[in-house]
Design a protein that fits this description.
CATH architecture of the largest domain: 3-Layer(aba) Sandwich
Helix content: 25-40%
Oligomer: single chain
CATH class of the largest domain: Alpha Beta
Structural class: alpha+beta
Low-confidence stretches: 13-43
Largest sheet: 7 strands, antiparallel
Distance between the termini: 15 Å
Number of domains: 2
Length: 428
C-alpha cells in the first residue's frame, strides 16, 4: 500500500472518530480548523494534501445543512489540465516561494452585489493568506449598487462612463480636484485593513504626494494609455482619503492591498452584462492586464439566456469575447462558472442549460476549466427549491445575500478539491 493511501485511511479513521465525538457533544467545528501560525514554514505537496483534506472535511459538514444542493457534483471539470499552472502557484505561495497569487473574476449582477465573490475570496484567503481586499470601485458615486464590505464617499459629484468598460466595470469621470473617503469593514469576517492603495487612472493623472494623508511613499508608473499610482501608508488601517487632482480625468479602479504574502481576489460585475455586450470591450481587457492575474474567472451567461435566445449568436459572442481576452492574456488559465438555474417568463429557463452547454463545449475544445453551478444547485428547475429556502429572490433570477454566499462557498470548495487533487498527484 502506498504511503499516501495509508495516510488517507488513517486520516479518515481519525476524522470519523473526531466527528462522532463532537457530534454527540453538539459541538459544531469552526470553519478555520488550523490557524496560519500552526502551519510549518516549509510545506511540501504531501502536507498540503493533508491540510486541504481537513478543509474539505469541514466544508462537507457545513454543506450538509443545505439538502437542496448536489455537493457530489461540486467539482471543476478539466481542472488538472487547465488549472495546473494556477494550482502550482498556490503551492508555491504556501511554500513561501511566491509572495502573491492574483485572481480576477468578471461577471454580471450575480458578481456586482459582492456576496458571491466576497465569500469565495475570504474563504480562500483564510488558507492561502490575505493580501488585501483587492479591486474596489465607487459604484455608489456612479449611481449603482456596490458590495457591502467597503464604502466610498465624496463631496464631489462625478460622471459615469459605461462605454468603453473598464477593469472596475465603469469609469468615474472627474472634472476637478476631489477626494475619495474609503472605509472597509469585516463583513466577510476577515481582516479588512490595508497599508497600500493602487489607483488606476488615465495617463494624464498625477497624484500629489503632499495631498495624500498618512502616506510614506508614492510611486507613479505609466503603462500604455494608463497610469498607476502606488500609495504606501504609514500604518495599516481600514480607512483612507485619496485626493484626486484635476489632471485625473478618468478613474478605473482602486486596489486595496496589504504588505503580506497571500492571495488577491479581484472581482468586477456589471448588472445586465453578458458575452453579448462585453465581447468587444478591448479596453477593459487591456486594463485587466495591469493587475497581472494568475487566474481569470468568467461568470457570464445569465443575461445571454434572456429574451430571444439564438445558439449561433451566443457562440459568436463567446468566441469574440475570448478572442479579445486571450489577446491580452494568452497564457493565463481561465475558469468558466456556468450560469445558475433561473426562470424566464414564469417558467424554467431552458436556455440557461443551452448557454451552459455552449460554454462547456467551447471550454473542452480549448482546454479551459468549467464549474457547472446549475448542476451543483440541483439541476433544472432547482431555483424553485432555492426560493423555498429563502436563497433566491422573487424573480427566480437573482439570489438573496445568503444564496450568493452559499454559491461562493461552493466555488471555494470546488477550488480546494482541485488543489487537493493537484497536491496529491503532482509527485506521481
Amino acid at each position: 500500500m502506498k504511503r499516501r493511501e495509508l495516510l488517507l485511511i488513517l486520516l479518515m479513521l481519525f476524522s470519523s472518530v473526531f466527528l462522532l465525538i463532537f457530534a454527540k457533544s453538539g459541538y459544531v467545528p469552526d470553519a478555520e480548523l488550523f490557524s496560519e501560525e500552526e502551519y510549518p514554514e516549509d510545506l511540501n505537496s504531501l502536507e498540503e494534501f493533508i491540510q486541504s483534506y481537513y478543509l474539505l472535511l469541514d466544508s462537507d459538514a457545513y454543506l450538509k445543512n443545505y439538502s437542496f444542493i448536489d455537493p457530489a457534483k461540486n467539482e471543476i471539470q478539466n481542472n488538472q489540465d487547465a488549472l495546473e499552472p494556477f494550482y502550482l502557484k498556490l503551492l508555491q505561495l504556501r511554500n513561501g516561494l511566491r509572495d502573491e497569487v492574483v485572481i480576477y473574476q468578471i461577471g454580471d449582477s450575480h458578481v456586482q452585489s459582492g456576496y458571491f465573490s466576497g465569500t469565495a475570496r475570504s474563504a480562500l484567503q483564510k488558507y492561502f493568506g490575505n493580501a488585501g481586499r483587492g479591486l474596489i470601485f465607487p459604484n455608489k458615486l456612479a449611481k449603482t449598487n456596490q458590495p457591502d464590505d467597503y464604502q466610498i464617499s465624496s463631496d464631489t459629484r462625478f460622471g459615469r462612463i459605461d462605454k468603453p468598460r473598464s477593469m472596475g466595470g465603469f469609469t468615474l469621470a472627474n472634472q476637478g480636484e476631489s477626494e475619495l473617503r474609503i472605509k472597509t469593514n469585516s463583513f466577510f469576517k476577515i481582516d479588512c485593513t490595508f497599508d497600500q492603495a493602487l489607483v488606476y487612472a488615465d495617463r494624464s493623472a498625477n497624484l500629489a504626494f503632499d495631498k495624500q494623508p498618512g502616506i510614506k511613499h508614492l510611486d507613479r508608473a505609466e503603462i500604455g494609455d494608463y497610469s498607476i499610482h502606488h500609495l504606501s501608508y504609514e500604518e495599516a488601517a481600514n480607512s483612507a482619503v485619496i485626493a484626486l487632482p484635476a489632471s485625473l480625468k478618468e478613474l478605473y479602479g482602486i486596489s486595496l492591498e496589504r504588505e503580506e504574502a497571500g492571495l488577491l481576489y479581484h472581482s468586477m460585475g456589471v448588472n445586465g452584462a453578458g458575452f453579448y455586450n462585453l465581447a468587444d470591450s478591448r479596453e477593459m481587457f487591456s486594463q485587466i492586464a495591469l493587475l497581472k492575474p494568475d487566474l481569470l474567472i468568467v461568470s457570464l451567461g445569465t443575461n445571454d439566456a434572456q429574451g430571444t435566445f439564438r445558439a449561433e449568436v451566443m457562440r459568436k459572442n463567446l468566441q469574440s469575447f475570448m478572442a479579445n481576452l486571450t489577446l491580452e492574456h494568452p497564457d493565463v488559465p481561465v475558469l468558466f462558472t456556468l450560469p445558475p438555474d433561473s426562470r424566464k417568463n414564469g417558467k424554467a429557463n431552458k436556455d440557461i442549460t443551452a448557454v451552459g452547454k455552449i460554454i462547456s463545449d467551447y471550454a473542452r475544445a480549448n482546454n479551459y476549466a468549467v464549474w457547472d453551478l446549475q448542476e451543483v444547485m440541483g439541476g433544472n428547475s432547482s431555483v424553485a427549491k432555492w426560493r423555498a429556502n429563502s436563497m433566491a429572490a422573487k424573480d427566480h433570477l437573482h439570489f438573496t445575500p445568503k444564496g450568493y454566499m452559499l454559491q461562493g462557498h461552493l466555488l471555494y470548495q470546488a477550488m480546494i478539491k482541485g488543489y487537493k487533487t493537484f497536491s496529491e498527484t503532482r509527485d506521481k
